[in-house]
C-alpha cells in the first residue's frame, strides 16, 4: 500500500502535530509513505531523517501556480493508493486521480473544500455526527481517534532551567496561545490557588496579552511562558498536574498525552473531553470559563489523599485501551484496506 499525506499549513498546531506523528507512525508500521507539505524546518527534517520521501510546495493563496502542478506530478510519479489530506488548503488543492482521497478533520470545518473527497475521517464521534448532520453521507464518514504522541518514559526537564523550585507544585498547560485554549482562565485560577507554578508551553497571537494578564493578576512570578516545545513528554514528566482549560476543543490530544505519561489531569467540559473522559475517574472536569472551579479542582489534586494516584491509574488505562500509537495506526490501516477493497469491488 502506498500512502501520500498532504499538509498545506506551515505553522505549529494540533492538526500539524498530528500530521507529523501519523506520517512517522505509518512509516514505522511499514507503509510506503510519502509527504507533500508546506515548508516547516522541523517537519521536513524529521521526515527526511526517517527516510520519508518529502516534497515541499508553496501552498500559497494567490498566484501560486506551483502547488497544483507539483501535486499532480507527485501523484503521477508515486501512484499512491491513498491520498490523505489535512485541513482546508491541502484538501482543496488535491488533484483528482486514480486513488482514494481521504481527508482527516480535527474540527467542525465547512465542507466546501471537501466536496471532492471520497471519504472523511473525524477524530471524534461528535465530528462524525456533525459531518452527517450537514449532509455528508454516513457511509463515507469514519471515526478514527488520535494517539498520544509523546515519549512516555522521557526524562523530566530540569526545573532549575525553567526558574522553578524543585519542591514547587507545577501545573503544565500545552497548546496554541489562542482564545479557544483559554489560558486566561488558567491564569485567573492561579491567582486563587496561589501555591503552584504554571508552565504554559505554546506560541500564538495572544502571547503579549497573556503576559500582560499575568502581570495584572500578580501571578507573573509563578508563570513561565515556554514557547513552542518539542519535548512535551519531558515537560509532562516534570509536571505535577496537567491543566487543559480550553473553551472549545473538538478532541484534545493533550489529554491523552497526560494519561500516557501518568500525569493527573484537570480539564474543561468541552466536546472532546466530554466524549473521552469521565469526571472524577480519569480526570477532574470543570465548566468552561469557570476559573474558580478550576482552582478548586487543582486544590483537590494537591490536597486530597490518593486522588492523583487514582486519576493517573484510570487515565493510563484509558490511554492503553484506546489511544496508543499501535491501536491508532492499525485503525487507519484497517480503514484504508476496507475502503480500497470496496473500490475494487465496485470497479469490477
Describe the structure.
By secondary structure, the protein is of the alpha/beta class. The chain folds into 2 domains: about 1-145 and about 325-345, Rossmann fold, CATH 3.40.50.2000; about 160-320, Glycogen Phosphorylase B (Rossmann fold, 3-Layer(aba) Sandwich). The chain contains 13 helices and 13 strands. A 7-stranded parallel sheet has the order 3-2-1-4-5-6-7, with helices on both faces. A 6-stranded parallel sheet has the order 10-9-8-11-12-13, sandwiched between helices. The longest helix has 23 residues, at about 325-345. The model has no long low-confidence stretch (mean pLDDT about 95).
Shape: globular
Unreliable stretches: none
State the secondary-structure class.
alpha/beta
Sheet with the most strands: spatial strand order = 3-2-1-4-5-6-7
Quick tags:
348 residues, alpha/beta, Rossmann fold, seven-stranded parallel sheet, 13 helices
Question: How would you summarize this macromolecular structure in one to three sentences?
Answer:
By secondary structure, the protein is of the alpha/beta class. The protein is built from 13 helices and 13 strands. It has helices at residues 14-28, 41-49, 67-78, 87-93, 125-133, 183-192, 207-217, 232-238, 253-260, 271-276, 291-303, 307-322, 325-347; strands at residues 2-7, 32-37, 53-56, 82-86, 100-105, 119-122, 141-143, 170-174, 197-201, 223-227, 241-244, 265-268, 284-286.
Describe how the helices and strands are arranged.
Layout: E1 2-7, H1 14-28, E2 32-37, H2 41-49, E3 53-56, H3 67-78, E4 82-86, H4 87-93, E5 100-105, E6 119-122, H5 125-133, E7 141-143, E8 170-174, H6 183-192, E9 197-201, H7 207-217, E10 223-227, H8 232-238, E11 241-244, H9 253-260, E12 265-268, H10 271-276, E13 284-286, H11 291-303, H12 307-322, H13 325-347
Parallel strand pairs: 1-2, 1-4, 2-3, 4-5, 5-6, 6-7, 8-9, 8-11, 9-10, 11-12, 12-13
Helix pairs in contact: 6-7, 6-11, 9-12
Amino acid at each position: 500500500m502506498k500512502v501520500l499525506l498532504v499538509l498545506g499549513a506551515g505553522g505549529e498546531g494540533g492538526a500539524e502535530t498530528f500530521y507529523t506523528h501519523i506520517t512517522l507512525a505509518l512509516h514505522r508500521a511499514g507503509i510506503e509513505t510519502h509527504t507533500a507539505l508546506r515548508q516547516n524546518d522541523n517537519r521536513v527534517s524529521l521526515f527526511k531523517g526517517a527516510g520519508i520521501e518529502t516534497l515541499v510546495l508553496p501552498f500559497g493563496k494567490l498566484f501560486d501556480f506551483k502547488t497544483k502542478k507539483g501535486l499532480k506530478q507527485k501523484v503521477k510519479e508515486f501512484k499512491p493508493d491513498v491520498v490523505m489530506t489535512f485541513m482546508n488548503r491541502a484538501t482543496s488543492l488535491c488533484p483528482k486521480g486514480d486513488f482514494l482521497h481521504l481527508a482527516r478533520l480535527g474540527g467542525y470545518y465547512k465542507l466546501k473544500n471537501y466536496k471532492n473527497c471520497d471519504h472523511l475521517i473525524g477524530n471524534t464521534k461528535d465530528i462524525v455526527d456533525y459531518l452527517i448532520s450537514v449532509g455528508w453521507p454516513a457511509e463515507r464518514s469514519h471515526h478514527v481517534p488520535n494517539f498520544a504522541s509523546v515519549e512516555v518514559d522521557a526524562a523530566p526537564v530540569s526545573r532549575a532551567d525553567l526558574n522553578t523550585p524543585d519542591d514547587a507544585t507545577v501545573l503544565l498547560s500545552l497548546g496554541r496561545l489562542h482564545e479557544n485554549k483559554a489560558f486566561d482562565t488558567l491564569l485567573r485560577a492561579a491567582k486563587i490557588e496561589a501555591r503552584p507554578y504554571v508552565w504554559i508551553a505554546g506560541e500564538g497571537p495572544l502571547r503579549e496579552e497573556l503576559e500582560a494578564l499575568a502581570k495584572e493578576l500578580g501571578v507573573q512570578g509563578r508563570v513561565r511562558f515556554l514557547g513552542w516545545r518539542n519535548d512535551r513528554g519531558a515537560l509532562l514528566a516534570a509536571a505535577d498536574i496537567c491543566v487543559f482549560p480550553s473553551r472549545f476543543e473538538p478532541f484534545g490530544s493533550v489529554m491523552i498525552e497526560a494519561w500516557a505519561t501518568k500525569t493527573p489531569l484537570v480539564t474543561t467540559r468541552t466536546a472532546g473531553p466530554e466524549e473521552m473522559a469521565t469526571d472524577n475517574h480519569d480526570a477532574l472536569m470543570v465548566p468552561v470559563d469557570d476559573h474558580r472551579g478550576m482552582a478548586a479542582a487543582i486544590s483537590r489534586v494537591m490536597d486530597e489523599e490518593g486522588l492523583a494516584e487514582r486519576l493517573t491509574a484510570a487515565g493510563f488505562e484509558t490511554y492503553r485501551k484506546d489511544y496508543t500509537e499501535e491501536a491508532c495506526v492499525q485503525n487507519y490501516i484497517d480503514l484504508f484496506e476496507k475502503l480500497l477493497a470496496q473500490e475494487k469491488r465496485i470497479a469490477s
